[in-house]
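Lab meeting minutes (informal)
Scribe: AK
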Amino acid sequence: MASGNYTMDLARLAASLTSKALPKSLYGTLPIIVIDIIPAMLIGMVKPVYKSSTEALTNIHGNGGPHGEDFLTALAAGYEGCARIGLASCSSVEDERGFHNPIINGQLAVAAAVGNLLSWDAATIASAMGVAASSSGGLVAFQTTDAKTKQIHPGHGGPLGIEAALMARAGVTGSPNILENEMGFLHAFSPEPTYTQTLASLRPWWTSTTVLPKL
């Protein structure tokens, strides 16, 4: 049982993050993140999902969609959240429980990124993450078969996260402590979560600066 509200900590980070607050080392990582996304866009099963996500972001952001620094800042907020949730979950999520990380924590990260993009407060972002977590799922059974479900998992996180964010904006509430809740995300997916090592003391340690493309 966790003693802190780590969901709100991540939500506050997403809510307060600006381009000026990003460490210089992260600017070297963001292009790698973008490059790593491109192959997923080109996969036939994922491209329609990406297209619908892009259209949704354009519609809710207005003014032709997000641009420049706003997009990179939201991207950083999402990836930092995704990386920290993944680290808190530990590899046992996949190795022991059989869940695929991109489709269990991806939508929480997207919900946080949308919140940053639209300048929401931390409470709304935490609620959006709570809504998003209710859509978490996806199994690694593809590892022992020739199934193609692995390829669609990363693509599903985008629209699920956007949907959760839009529902939160419309007044649908999610558990604001979804990560550390005794019946929440980490309880469900990880047999040995490491809350304090990865979700506490958010600054100045940025996990996103260690992201590498998976070749």
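Next up, CB showed the second protein from the same session:
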Amino acid sequence: MTSPSAIVSRLSLGQTLLIETNRELLMGTLSYINEKHLMLELDNARDVKTNFTYQSPQMLAYQQMKSIKIVADETAEDSSDMTTESDEIKQNVYKEEEIKLPNNKATSKEQRDHSVSSKEPCEGFSIQLSAMDFQLLQTQYDSLVYITQTDQKYHKAVADIRSQTMIGLLIDPLECARHRKTSLIAVATPNSIYLFDILSLGKVFKELRSILESSERPRKAMHYGNRFVDHFKHRHGLDLSGIFDTFVAYCLVTDEKTNKSLEQTVQQVFNISNVYFKFDMEQNINTNPYVRPLSAAYRLRIAKLVAFQLKLYDHLLHEHMLRNFYKQCQKFSLTLVHNEDDYDVAQQLHSKSTLGHDHIQPDGNWKDVLASN
């Protein structure tokens, strides 16, 4: 299997590429290559499926691409095909002569709004992340702080984590709960990622322990909370609290009680290729969590998982669990703005006004459910 970096390095500026994503089939001229972050920029990009031409360069993250075809290359006689997935994934093959590009350009507002910088709903439960989303995630990865002793880095990390209202939490390894010792504790904040090397630190010190045991601030997003609680209790004697379990949340919003790991859930919800979390096959990386020193690639994989843990929490809570609440907020917020009668609006501002109350409806029997639990 060709590595992502090898695929990107084979491309050259000025080539005309045909790139397939889950939503689009983009043709354009390659104008920029970021080999470090595996990102490409296309000039004069056109979606062959909808015949929409983008008015600005389109930045694409490697993880968005299902296949890449070099349609025209002034430096080579023949075009070549490259795929960003393993051979197990069925790909559509596009031949140059089969691509027909109509001359007219779409200019409707709806099509202009359909840009790569916005999240797009995919089939079923999944969504398509934008290039901007991946850039923000990359910023988190670049801020990774690896902590092996209780020095200034450690205390700055603890202070930052304590100031958050919500964090992403990951233990490596987690699968066996209490039955394997802790190698790493990973924490994601909206802007940073911290990896606490517990093998090097020797134990979970009181500053970090107090954060993990707090039931209020910060709360912790994790996947399979029962394993976390079991691990921390039997390995470190601490009582983990303030839990938001994305496995439970996923089961509730999908009504699907199927055991899925964090990685599997992230791949399904955000429509991400399994390549994203895999190691580069050309690098000889030791995947034993207890071997030191830990490679940069191993640390990056943990950073990706814990960053997506926080993103998964945010998506499940705000896009699904609170969806009806946000709809009611939106309806209530519009109860005054469209009234052109200034006097009538003034009359509705008194303390006993019931304007808009009809838009505030309980979501089922939620009071009874809360009372019974």
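CB comment: DSSP finds 13 helices and 15 strands in the chain.
No objections, moving on.
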